[in-house]
Design goal:
By secondary structure, the protein is mostly beta strands. Helix content is 5%, strand content 41%. It contains three helices and 30 strands. The strands form seven sheets. Strands 1, 2, 3, 28, 29 and 30 form a six-stranded antiparallel β-sheet that branches. The protein is globular, with a radius of gyration of 22 Å. The two termini are 38 Å apart.
Length: 503
């Protein structure tokens, strides 16, 4: 008979092998527990084994282990086992020469995924690809996704071309299984960045409306950026002319629809002095908006955008709403460490609460890029967190160990989160690997994705855990040695973790 200690080790090993979820109790939620699934790699590949001789990239398989970044994720309100995700995808870069919209679908709650591209990529000879308005354009990215309540998926993003740039919307029907069409929602004068998108699923007068926002740089006589907005009332077939919501140095929009159909829209104002989170709302289905008002002045925690030693990050807002209020979160450096904070309004955005930290300030580490959802009477929030970095220092940028964490609280204003949070990643990763710019710059995108059906919350993020030089005989990843940059040394992937709240 084995000793108790040996038996315990065997049981523990078995739990790891079969993937039993880690279960943590949150003290402030009484008997409720939160469980986290094993992390799932969205992209199918051959796990850093070099491609066979003569192999070609495939939209359904990442043979060459290229980068994917900046994911978004959505859950089907009619069937919560169906998830869709999108991301900037370099999988076929060696053949098509550009990054493209990756489209991924799961029919088992995120346990497995099927991979594809939005039709129209260079070399796409399918009828859908030839008919797509993307077929003669350049690269694209900045994926944003949403379901309506009829089982249709809307996949928005930005399209970059030599002559002009665009925002596009691709529609899939049958719970994301059938490609329908891609529409160029609008062309953009100046450089576009960071779109945001929401679909009205409230069931009221404007049910089914599609709303899109975007930042435009280098427009107008002053050459200042603006935030612009458009809407579609026919399921993404046509779009209204762009309307400018502000012309004063904005970036990083976020949008949501309340249970009464009101549209809430926020962005960060870069002032050169005191930066601010700005807010507008529409109660007529996006036809008009209120004058911009302030949610809160912020102390940004922005990592340098062209620093070869650290990935970039910026304090952009995320927003959610339910019957009890409107909620805006961002990461803020006012405490000396970057902390995810949240403010709320119970009067439709006229007044906002003093921001509170989601996890408190005692924990080490910086927190960046929060993503927020409201569902089933709870606020659910995830973010990148460096608390497990042994070399963390408040005055330093984020180092070589990054994770994703999650917390939830009962909705309502004021907001009160428990001081504990749950680790979503089952392995830390180094976000500062130089995978872009020919091996000169680190990059993990500017946001993560979150979706919830009220019980299961799915979080998608960019992850560098699989980056490794291959074959083993090669030297470490080195931008000056091409043989180290083709297989393994660019193996950045999208991962998904599922948080389940019980009961």
């Amino acid at each position: 008979m084995p000793s108790l200690s040996k038996l315990f080790r065997q049981i523990l090993l078995l739990a790891v092998v079969v993937g039993i979820s880690l279960v943590l109790s949150l003290a402030s939620t009484g008997t409720q527990t939160i469980s986290v699934s094993p992390n799932v790699k969205v992209i199918r590949d051959n796990n850093n084994v070099p491609c066979p001789a003569g192999a070609k990239p495939d939209p359904t398989f990442d043979c060459f282990h290229r980068q994917q970044a900046e994911p978004d994720i959505a859950v089907d309100p009619q069937d919560p086992t169906i998830l869709v995700a999108g991301a900037f995808d370099s999988r076929m870069l060696p053949v098509i020469g550009v990054g493209w919209f990756g489209y991924h679908r799961s029919t088992d709650g995120g346990k497995t995924w099927a991979n594809s591209f939005i039709p129209g990529f260079p070399g796409d000879t399918s009828p859908e690809g030839k008919a797509s308005p993307l077929s003669d354009k350049g690269s694209n990215g900045d994926a944003v996704l949403a379901f309506d309540n009829l089982g249709n998926v809307f996949y928005g993003g930005l399209v970059f071309d030599r002559n002009n740039d665009y925002a596009s919307v691709t529609v899939y029907s049958q719970h994301g299984a059938k490609y329908e069409r891609t529409t160029l929602a609008f062309d953009i004068t100046g450089f576009p960045d960071k779109p945001c998108m929401a679909v009205d699923t409230a069931g009221g007068k404007y049910n089914g409306n599609l709303y899109i926002g975007v930042t435009r740089f280098g427009t107008g006589a002053t050459n200042r950026p603006t935030v612009a907005f458009t809407r579609s009332t026919d399921h993404g077939v046509t779009f209204a002319p762009l309307q400018t919501l502000t012309g004063v140095s904005p970036q990083g929009c976020a949008i949501t629809v309340g249970p009464d159909g009101a549209v809430y829209f926020v962005w960060r104002l870069f002032s050169g002095g005191t930066d601010t989170i700005k807010f507008v709302k529409s109660i007529d289905g996006g036809q008009s908006f209120t004058t911009p008002s302030s949610v809160q002045d912020i102390t940004p925690f922005d990592q340098a955008r062209n620093n070869p030693n650290t990935f970039r990050s910026a304090s952009f807002p995320t927003i959610a709403a339910d019957q009890k209020g409107i909620y805006v979160a961002w990461h803020d450096g006012g405490s000396g460490k970057s902390r995810v904070v949240i403010s709320c309004s119970s009067d439709g955005g006229q007044n906002w609460s003093t921001p509170v930290q989601v996890t408190g300030d005692a924990q080490n580490g910086h927190q960046v890029m929060p993503a927020l959802k409201a569902s089933n009477g709870k606020l659910r929030i995830a973010w990148y967190d460096s608390r497990n970095d042994p070399r963390f220092a408040p005055s330093a940028f984020i180092g070589e160990a990054l994770d994703v964490y999650y917390a939830e609280a009962l909705s309502g204003c004021p907001v009160s989160f428990p001081t504990s949070s749950v680790r979503v990643t089952d392995k830390s990763f180094n976000p500062n690997l130089r995978l872009y710019g020919g091996g000169t710059l680190p990059f993990i995108g500017d946001y993560i994705g979150i979706a919830s059906d009220g019980t299961h919350t799915h979080i998608a993020w960019t992850d560098n855990r699989d980056v490794a030089p291959q074959p083993v005989a090669n030297p470490p990843c080195d931008p000056n040695r091409a043989e180290t940059l083709n297989s393994g040394c660019r193996n950045q992937n999208i991962y998904v973790g599922t948080v389940t709240s019980n009961p």
